[in-house]
Amino acid sequence: MMRPLTICMPYYSNPGILREHQRIWAQYPEKMRRTMTVVIADDGSPNHPAVDAVEPCDYDLQVYRIEPNIPWNQCGARNLAMHVAPEGWCLVTDIDHVLMPDEAVVLAHMKLCEGNYYVPARKVMPHGEPKKMHPNSYILTRQMYWDAGGCDEDFAGWYGSDATFRRALTLVGNRIELTSPSLMLYGRDVLPDASTTEWGRKDTKWHSAKNPALRAKKLNGPYKAVNPLRFSWSRVK
Description:
Layout: E1 6-11, H1 15-25, H2 30-34, E2 37-42, H3 50-53, E3 60-66, H4 74-84, E4 89-92, E5 97-98, H5 101-109, E6 116-124, E7 129-131, E8 138-141, H6 142-147, H7 162-169, E9 174-185, H8 212-219, E10 233-235
């Protein structure tokens, strides 16, 4: 039995990689596309908003936009995507990670168990070399995402919040690491806008490790985040 597929991801001025996703999604089996939902949460892109990059398609493609342009608000964008996602199983990932057609078929048919969350394998474009698992890609139910509290928006404006949600998941589910399906990582050498470049990452002023309160949060044990969606947003497609 083929399970309906839901893909959720943030977007920030990434029209090239979004079009690549759409090129790949168009290659999914027709039966899969009829029940597939894709949720794109545009994190306030000042240039090249997602709604201008999407093309006509035969699956349910939903685009939402966060109104303020908050630096490194991917935690909020993920929360928005999972807030509007349909109930059931979702693949939540970053926009530089692509689910290829054969891997989508594996995911649609694999047995997934309530109480577990799954971490897909990963390969690298263009040749598909294996790479360690992405620390922020999950196959999980919408219910489990919110049972864990979603992503902590205290980290909005700062780079490096993945670990807090990863630990929160351990409070509500069992981690299962997969060898298949896998995601394909697109680097900026393959598509220049595959990931965000506007703000610095580690070892810059944006790094959450430089914020004592956030650093303490990351060092303490797992906790459930509160008060998601601290911004104005709207559906734009």
